[in-house]
Amino acid sequence: MREAMDPWTFVVASYAIGVGATLGMVVWSLISMRRAESRRDRARKP
Amino acid sequence: MHGFANPARFLRNARWLMPLCLGVGLGVAGLALIWGVMLAPAERLQGETVRIMYLHVPAAWLGMAGWMGIAGASLAELVWRHPLAAIAARACALPGTVFTAVCLLTGSLWGRPAWGTWWVWDGRLTSMLVLLFLYFGWIALSQASDSSAGAGENRAPAIFGLVGAVNVPIIHYSVIWWNSQHQPPSITLGKSAMSGDFLVPLLAAMLGFTLIFAGVVLARMRAILADQQAEARLRRKAFSQVEF
């Protein structure tokens, strides 16, 4: 007997992983950039 | 090329280029995914699951492009001692790893309804998994190397980056060289076996995700440069306070 599968379950799961990972990576990159640049600016102060 | 080697000049350009790439990339990728899910038709044989393609194909392209970025930067580091090359290679590693992992996961989710299995040990899937492990190894090696050393002083990651590039053509040609569950390439240079209904949103998604990749690489390069500059200043301050 053929297993019935809802294709949208796989589509939604793929988009959740792909979009979530991409947005997470963008946010993390921006936060780490801001943190590093403010650390550099603090180090510049005498 | 050495015109762009000056970190101050690079930072001047990256300050406007990075938000532009990220903003346009997120907009184009978002519209392409909405198009792919809501407007593009279902495929005759695969049905609705074909919509996974709009994420899976850009992720596969950028997983491989990330390693080619590492290899190109490694070559520039080894041959021309380009001061930003090692930083560019390190910046490519994170998005390359993320997109390779997304490609493997979305491919597995596509394979279950299309092939009836989550995973097969064929040439394409296995070589893509090897690419993910190469990224893990490269990141571990580059972090183990002394990040404060100048260009050309830590050559191990650069050599690894060049040697690992041999896997990229293996991934690309694996579906031609060996029998595979995976379909052969539908898009080649100058022609496509795909209908425009699928091709246009796919190309838009590839453009959008490529711009996001470029924006993340620029943000990572700014972060790594700022970290190195902060380290150098703190070291100079510490030396100046030492009494001999």
TrEMBL record, chain B:
Belongs to the CcmC/CycZ/HelC family. Pfam families: Cytochrom_C_asm. Residues 31-180 form the Cytochrome c assembly protein domain. The chain crosses the membrane at residues 16-39, 59-80, 92-111, 123-144, 156-178, 198-219. The lineage of its organism: Bacteria, Pseudomonadati, Pseudomonadota, Alphaproteobacteria, Sphingomonadales. Keywords: Cell inner membrane, Cell membrane, Cytochrome c-type biogenesis, Membrane, Transmembrane, Transmembrane helix, Transport. It comes from the Bacteria. It is found in: Cell inner membrane; Membrane. GO terms for biological process: cytochrome complex assembly. It is a multi-pass membrane protein. This is Heme exporter protein C. GO terms for cellular component: plasma membrane. One of its GO terms (molecular function) is heme binding. Its main location: membrane. Required for the export of heme to the periplasm for the biogenesis of c-type cytochromes.
